[in-house]
# Entry
Amino acid sequence: MSFPSRSAVESHRLADHSADFRMILLAAMAAPVGAGGACGAWVLTKLIALAANVFWLRRFSTAPASIADAAHGWSTLFIPVIGGLVIGLMARFGSEKIRGHGIPEAIEAILYGESRLSLKVAILKPVSSAISIGSGGPFGAEGPIIMTGGAIGSLFAQCFHLSAAERKTLLVAGAAAGMTAIFNTPLAAILLAVEVLLFEWKPRSFVPVVAAVLVSSVCRPLMIGAGPMFTFAAATPSAAWAVTAASGVGVISGLQATLVSSALYRVEDVFHRLPIHWMWWPAIGAVVVGFGGLIDPRVLGAGYANIQALLDSSLTTQAVITLLAVKAAVWLAALGSGTSGGVLAPLLILGGALGCLVGHALPGDAGLWAMVGMAGIMSGAMRAPITGALFAVELTDHFEALPLTIAAAGGAYAVSVLLMRRSILTEKLARRGRHILQEYTVDPLDFMQARQLMTCNPATLPGSMLVSDMLAFFGKDATYRSYPVVDDEDRLLGLASRTDALRWQGRDSPAATLAEALSDASLPVAYPDTPSSILADLIIETGVGRIPIIDPATRRVVGILSRQDLLQARHIHRRAETHRSRFDERRGQ
# Structure
């Protein structure tokens, strides 16, 4: 009888984390991915500027161009439509994956596509997004750069022999690096990777993402510029009332995020009911964008100047209301049509405008409450509360407001998860039949060991039993499908099953003992401290439904673990989640 070594059963040592030295390799590979993400961000910003200059100023230049200043007359209506037509053609004859704001597509590639993105997407996504934003589309660059940076990381990973999980790490590293280069928010980019993209918190993925973000952060001043993206210098109150007020603004922002997310997919449903090919939808949505531009040109393009104006409190109340209403309308129509663009900048404008309006009724500068509203709506819409709280203060380098943004993010997150089953990012995937759970918990199979689930002192068969007697036993008295076979000192010899009984029925020498019949067999075994997740893998790989648990020193059988025992881990975990009881002093519990 042969047994696997302990290392063969447990391929890694028991520890708090599952990291190995491949983490260092991935971190080294993440460095060029980080540089690639920064380059992708630089190219995207230049493409957006080029498109804006070509569409609105009729010049071939990559110098910064203000669409709001250039938009006038009926060209404001027609230019977005031309951009929508171009994007529809690119999606129809190039790649359908360029449609939408990029983050759901990145999540789908991570969870269901083995983190493989194509070169075509890496090229077409930034080009289509630049045309969309440059022609007046009310989007930001963050969604496209997440898709573009992710494609850079994925393509680089596909050049090497890596697992799907390792490709995911480099894909997300590229996405986080791109976001860092666009916004100069390295902390928020890392947290966005954890809260939205990685679907895990492991050293294997966290350390490479940090490496890529740091490289991108170093490259950004050389390519795009140094310093925070927006300036903000208003005083931040530290009294208890301010935190309470920020929580209230967060609750309102959470309601706003819920309404906006619901409205977006209602608009998308309207487009799906149109009796024309989806290739034409972006142009139809662009008609709404054009009319919105006629009402208020500030709603066209990314609108970063609007964010700065909200932080500066330089807009009148009427201007803020107009910006809020028109920006929401044109953004919902455009994104619902399936064009290419991001969600983060529009969300910041909408949340900032609402926060600014509420701020007029609160003490302090209205720009401060605009920042608080930005943190709240990002947390509520994207279900990323820590990212939302940090992103708002990193954008302005105003960390004194962090307690307020945390309060707003927490309030918005609470409202959002109670009122919405899906976030603005995951609803699109749910409509494709993809169920996503964004609650990160320890798998009970990883948490529990064999000794906690096994059946102790299991029924065994002696090695001296004749095969003929074993055949009779399985024909009449057997309760289980298999039994451990042991010697006189309860040391494991093998495992006899009903399948063995059927195979041995045709043997010429039924008088042979079980010890002799099993002498050439190999057997999967485990030990009392083996994690139950390894046992689950062992059962699947070997097809053996009951795994003997042996003492590693004596080889004596101390238990047996079946498929049903493994399911007990799930039951115990579920009971801990749902069973409620009070402390009983008499019982000490």
